[in-house]
Amino acid sequence: MPYSEGDINWVYDRSGGTCFYCGKRLSFANYGVVGAHGAWEVDHFIPISSAGAHQPYNWVAACIECNTSKRDLMPWSFEPRRFVSGDRDPDNYL
User: Fold this and answer.
1) Domains and CATH numbers, the chain
2) Which tens digit of pLDDT belongs to each residue from 52-92?
3) Which residues of 20-37 are buried (b: 16+ CB within 10 A; e: fewer)?
């Protein structure tokens, strides 16, 4: 799904330039550049396949490794110790 430059800026700033899941420092310039230092992507906190919205409130910055590992998992399945089952609001974890 394409994102505007403004969308990408907002998602990166929302996370303070770190991966929402592991806290790894991200490089803004390496958005979508697989294999680059600090590469990252926009992740849907609640996957589209699980009725997650393609809207900014559901977007988080994720390093390539976390985004690839999470796949279509719900956040509480991906990191059960961190996320509360059923909590669909990523703002509760920023």
Assistant:
1) 5-93 (1.10.30)
2) 999 999 999 999 999 999 999 999 999 999 999 999 999 99
3) bbeebebeeebbeeeeee
